[in-house]
Amino acid sequence: MTDVMFYHLERGGLEDVLPGLLEKTLERGWRAVVRASSRERVEALDGFLWTYRDESFLPHGAAGDGEAQPVWLTDGEDAPNKADVLFLTDNASAEANTVGAFTRCVTIFDGRDEDALSAARAFWKEAKAAGHDVAYWKQSPKGRWEKQN
């Protein structure tokens, strides 16, 4: 079964946490696909990942960039890089029965957005019912991720 992890944003936005999670993914030797809710959002993330920090580089690409990179950005279901991890961002969704193709599925949702919160709750129930291992991570007051029981 797939590990389905829920990251509840409370203190920052996606841009504050996604690069670090992607860096940890690559450190493990894994590949990632980041699914956003629209083509415009993919383009914004693409630009952001080139500039988020001067001293590092996250190899990534999207449709139209040529070959598949270790991090693939999409607003669809494509994963040409044979990703190990699926990141769902910006209320992008997946069916619990389709995430089994990945080692891990990471849903990053904004807890201040009622629609995102409802969608995350529904996906939690669906993933649990499908037999996936689910875990919930919340930001501490200092911004670190803490696994909740």
UniProtKB/TrEMBL annotation:
Keywords: Nucleotidyltransferase, Transferase. One of its GO terms (molecular function) is DNA-directed DNA polymerase activity. Its EC number is 2.7.7.7. This is DNA polymerase III subunit chi. Pfam families: DNA_pol3_chi. InterPro entries: DNA_pol3_chi (IPR007459), PolIII_chi_sf (IPR036768). It is an enzyme of class 2 (transferase). The keyword Transferase applies.
